[in-house]
Each structure stands twice: as C-alpha cells, then as structure tokens.
Automatic annotation (TrEMBL):
Residues annotated to bind GTP: 277-284, 359-363, 423-426
Enzyme Commission code: 3.6.5.4
Protein name per the record: Signal recognition particle receptor FtsY
GO biological process: SRP-dependent cotranslational protein targeting to membrane
Entry's family note: Belongs to the GTP-binding SRP family. FtsY subfamily.
GO MF, one annotated term: signal recognition particle binding
Organism: Pseudoxanthomonas spadix (strain BD-a59)
Keyword Endoplasmic reticulum on entry: no
Catalyses which reaction(s): GTP + H2O = GDP + phosphate + H(+)
Record's keyword terms, sorted: Cell inner membrane, Cell membrane, Cytoplasm, GTP-binding, Hydrolase, Membrane, Nucleotide-binding, Receptor
Length: 477
C-alpha cells in the first residue's frame, strides 16, 4: 500500500524536480488506512510472576509482537506523532481526477509471513505459600459409640418352618369342636338344623344328602337313614331335635368299637411299630409326634429312618429325634429300607429299648412292586423277632375321601394293618370317611390329628369326634 501512494500520478510533477510535499490530516489518513486489528494479549506465566514477586525482580517489558503487513505503523525518529509522507498532488488540481488505467501493473504486495510459533514452556503448578504455615492444634479423639446389640433370632417352634403356628387345641371336647367345626360334615348339619325343620321325608332326604357329601359312604348312609325312617314312622320322634339325637347315637355306635388306644406291651423289648401309608399323608410327622408322646410317658425310644427314597426324609426324622432326645438309626439316601429296620431292631435289642418306631417311604397302593417291598420289611424284622412288628400303623389323610378305602384294602393285604391314624382333620377334611372305614374294616383307630403341634395328635375319642361334627346344642346335652 505504501507503493500505491508513492506511485507517480499523472499530471504530477516529479518529487525530485520541485521537492514539494503535501501533509495529510489524521482524518484523511484514518479514512485511507483502516484501524488495524488489536494484537492478542500476551499470556502471563503464573509461575514466573510468583517467582518475580518473591525475589523482587523488576518486571520486564513484554516482548513486541511481530509485525504483520496489516499492523505496520510508521514512527518518526524524534518520537512524535507518526507522519506519513506521500507525494503531493499537482497544485492546479482541486480534486483528484479518476485514475486512468495504467498499462503498467502494480507491484504485488509481499505475502505476509506467519510468525514462528514460540516454543511451549513447561507448565509449572503455581506455588502460593507466602504466609507461614500454621499447624492445627491436636484434637482429642472422640470415643467411638458402643455397638448396638445384635438381635437374636427366636427359635422356630415345631411344625411348619417359617409359618405362624397355632397354639394347641384346648383339652377335651372343646378342642375337638374348635378344630372340626370347619369340616363339611359340621357345616352341613349346622345349617340344616339351624332353621328348625319339620319332621318329614324332606328332612330325611336332606340328612341323606349331607351324609353322602361328607364322605360317609353310600352303604353307611343308607343304613343310617333307613333306621331313622323306621323310627320316625313308628312316631318315636317328637320333633327334629329328637331325630338329630337319634342320629348322634347311631354315629357313636359305629365308631365306638374302633376307638381303641394303642397299648405298649412291656414284655416286648423293643415294641416295634411299623408305619405305612401313601405319599404325603404325614407319616414322618406323625412319628415325631408319637416319639414325643412316648417320651413323655417314660418309655425308652428309638427311631429307624426307613424312608430312604424321599429327599430330606432322613434329615427330617433326625430333626425330630434331636428335638425329643431320641436316638435315630439311619443309613443315608437310597439305602435298603429293610436293612435299616434290621439294624435298628438289633440296636434296640442290645440297648434294651422299649419302643422302636420304623418309618417307611410313601408309596401308591396301586404299585404292586412297591407294596411287595413292605412285605420284605416285615419278613426281615420277623427273622430277629417272630412277633415283630407288633403294630402296623397306617396313616390316612382325612382329606382323601372314599379313596382311603382302596388304600387301606391294599395295605392291609400286603402287611396286615393293625391300627389307623387319621390326620389333617382340622383343615378342609370332610370327616365322614372315618365312619366308612370303621363300618367296612373295623380296624382300630388309634389316633386322630387335629392340628400341627405334637399335643394335637389325640387319642381317638368317638363321642368327642361325633359331638364336634354335630350342632353344639345337641353335643352338650
């Protein structure tokens, strides 16, 4: 751009002839030369500034940035205001005429040269520590709080693990009624006689329907209803309550012959009790409850873990043994049940044990091979003691219904059942199957389960059982 102003203009006198020059004002120069871009501020090194402040070294002037073509300035030698000297135009021209196109090309401006990048200085973290350090005063350690006592888990009561267990049923008839009032038998007769029905054939039909619904069985129901019908035609009943009293007497008459408790023979050492039944009726749990009962009665006891098929059956019986302080003879999973019973009988004879209860695996009565295994156990026990087992106790689920008759028939043919235990009567059991079993087989019913606790395994009481199934007003009479 300097060459542009120094170029000779047409009609101008050469500067070498007259030496006249023209001075331009600041406004004209500012219009001709735009304001240059401001130079980028210089980055201040923090570490160097702190070092200079610490040693008191004079601050050096910042280095002048390299000039570029668009930021060049012209300063006079005396340090005054910058002057720009260009050739003066002709004195005769008032205003500059438009410049004609010159055949000579203007000199190209020099290409700007980019400044070389400064070498990167290592970054030193600033160290600001001019004031003297003040050490903190030692603080007395705060004593740690005493640890909270760890809560101790309460032992789980006997029965179902992890579930709230009901207390034992009250003694006597009150306990039977409390646990059996939810059965189908009790609910059917309670609703039937609560509306004070008329003494007629319709009442007999309703009684017949209730008995069949409660699993009393067709044969037992027909015999009961026909006996009541004959007495009603003979005008032996004054009202429906008298008929209900006669029904109570007939039901007790069916159950009284089979309500025979189990008696331990003291001469047989040990007195062997073999428990049998289908899957899931509660054989192992019944053995645990019997163990507690015999232990409380003062008998020396031993258990044989003969259920070697079901998973954890041996561990379950061992848990009952530890709870009651009873020795358990076991061989592990999938062992021969007959060999377990044989070893237990040998150990019982050597120790003079009074009672030996042998557990067996649950099996369907329709499986002939499994039923034959029970016969093998009986024969093996007979080799050591011809009278063993002294009691074959079959456990029957009270909710089974009429299928219990088929089960008892097959088990009785295989091992000769001598006693029954009816369990789970406190749930949804209909209760009438007990009458069907007693009427058809006449096998003694030793115990009845009306709850989960060991005390809820009751010696079967025919009168208490019937009174719990019938309305309370009649049962208390």
């Amino acid at each position: 751009m300097v060459s542009f102003f120094r170029r000779k203009k047409p009609g101008d006198a050469p500067s070498g002839q007259d030496g006249n020059t023209r001075r331009y004002s600041v406004e004209e120069l500012a219009a001709a030369f735009p304001e240059p871009r401001p130079a980028a501020p210089k980055q201040v090194d923090a570490a160097a500034a702190i070092e200079q402040a610490r040693h008191g070294a004079p601050e050096q002037a910042p280095a002048t940035p390299p000039r570029t073509p668009d930021t060049q300035t012209f300063a006079p030698a005396d340090g005054g205001q910058p002057e720009f000297v260009v050739p003066a135009p002709s004195p005769l021209r008032a205003e500059p005429a438009p410049l004609p196109v010159s055949p000579v090309a203007a000199e190209p401006a020099p290409a700007p040269v980019a400044p070389a990048p400064a070498p990167a200085e290592p970054v030193v973290p600033p160290t600001v520590a001019l004031a003297p350090e003040v050490l903190p005063q030692p603080v007395a350690p705060t004593p740690a709080p005493a640890p909270a006592p760890t809560p101790t888990a309460e032992p789980i009561a006997s029965g179902s693990l992890g579930t709230a267990e009901r207390p034992a049923a009250p003694a006597g008839k009150a306990g039977w009624r409390e646990r059996l009032r939810g059965s189908v038998f009790a609910r059917s007769f309670g609703g039937l006689f609560s509306r004070n029905p008329k003494l007629d054939e319709d009442l007999l039909d309703e009684i017949e329907t209730a008995l069949i619904t409660a699993d009393v069985g067709v044969g037992a129901t027909t015999a009961l209803v026909e006996a009541l019908r004959k007495r009603m035609k003979a005008r032996e009943f004054a009202d429906a309550n008298a008929l209900l009293a006669a029904l109570r007497a007939e039901l007790i008459a069916i159950l009284r012959p089979v309500a025979v408790p189990l008696v331990i023979d003291p001469q047989a050492k040990p007195f062997v009790v073999l428990t049998v039944g289908v899957n899931g009726v509660g054989k192992t749990t019944t053995i645990g409850k019997l163990a507690k009962r015999f232990k409380d009665e003062g008998y020396s006891l031993m258990l044989a873990a003969g259920d070697t098929f079901r998973a954890a059956a041996v561990a379950q019986l061992q848990a009952w043994g530890e709870r009651n302080g009873v020795t358990v003879v076991a061989q592990g999973q999938n062992a021969d049940a007959a060999s377990v019973a044989f070893d237990a009988l040998q150990a019982g004879k050597a120790r003079g044990t009074q009672v030996l209860i042998a557990d067996t695996a649950g099996r369907l009565h329709t499986q002939t091979g499994l039923m034959n295994e029970l016969g093998k156990i009986r024969r093996v026990l007979g080799k050591l003691d011809p009278a063993a087992p002294h009691e074959v106790l079959m456990v029957i689920d009270g909710t089974t219904g009429q299928n219990a008759l088929s089960q008892l028939r097959q088990f009785h043919a295989a091992v000769g059942v001598t006693g029954l235990v009816v369990t789970k009567l406190d749930g949804t059991a209909k209760g009438g199957v007990v009458f069907a079993l007693a009427r058809e087989f006449g096998i003694p019913i030793r115990y009845a389960g009306i709850g989960e606790r060991p005390e809820d395994l009751r010696v079967f009481d025919a009168e208490a059982f019937v009174d719990a199934l019938l309305p309370e007003a009649l049962g208390s009479a």
